[in-house]
Amino acid sequence: MPVGGVRERRRGETVQEIKDAALQQLAESGSDALSLRAVARTVGMTVQSLYHYFDSRNALLVALVTDAHSALANAVEAAAERTRGRSPLERRLAATGAFRDWALVNRAAFLLLYGTPVPGFDPFAASGPDAASLRLAAPFVDVVFGGWTPQQLAAVPAPPGAPLQEASDPGIPLPPAALELFIELRARMHGLVMLELIGHLQPFNDCARAMFTAAMHRMSDDVDALQRALPE
What we know:
- This protein is mostly helical.
- It has two domains: 55 residues, Orthogonal Bundle (Arc Repressor Mutant, subunit A); 166 residues, Tetracycline Repressor, domain 2 (Orthogonal Bundle).
- Helices cover 68% and strands 0% of the residues.
- It is built from eleven helices and no strands.
- α1 packs across α2, α4 packs parallel to α7 and α5 packs antiparallel against α11.
């Protein structure tokens, strides 16, 4: 392997080691306690050496957020692709189940994305996290509205006040009322995952998976009922 290739591989390994140490610190102490000095100590380097890889705490956080959004999107995309050609219910249960499973396995990363904001850190000030987060919408749009005609999407009833009617383009290819519905559906899924993740389903923790699956089944039924009521 060329010297440059070896150098780049070693740099990549070190970057990953730093990210892993940061995620471990997030899991143990929470996002507001993330310290470059502590991360450097964990990987056995000085904080000055760490600056050669991440020039600030925010730069490290941006990398962690971008990676987490991408990994979560990969998991949901894989579930959506794996079930292509199956019933809408199967596809929705697979995609939402992948979202929940990833959150439970990667709790620190998930809470970095969706938990208490890190003081002084705006992940969307950089383009990486914004673009990565939008990737997650595509497989969910696919499994929620797969098989809908453009006419049906346009005919989704607008909620009172039509709050998204004048909103700027979010990069999700849906008419405003359908987008509003999509966000509400996402909130139903996300809310149950968050309750489970932070321990607020107590004393029903043992039933969490069954409760989630049942809720997603009902949500799928609601979507199908709405589609049947709309003109083709």
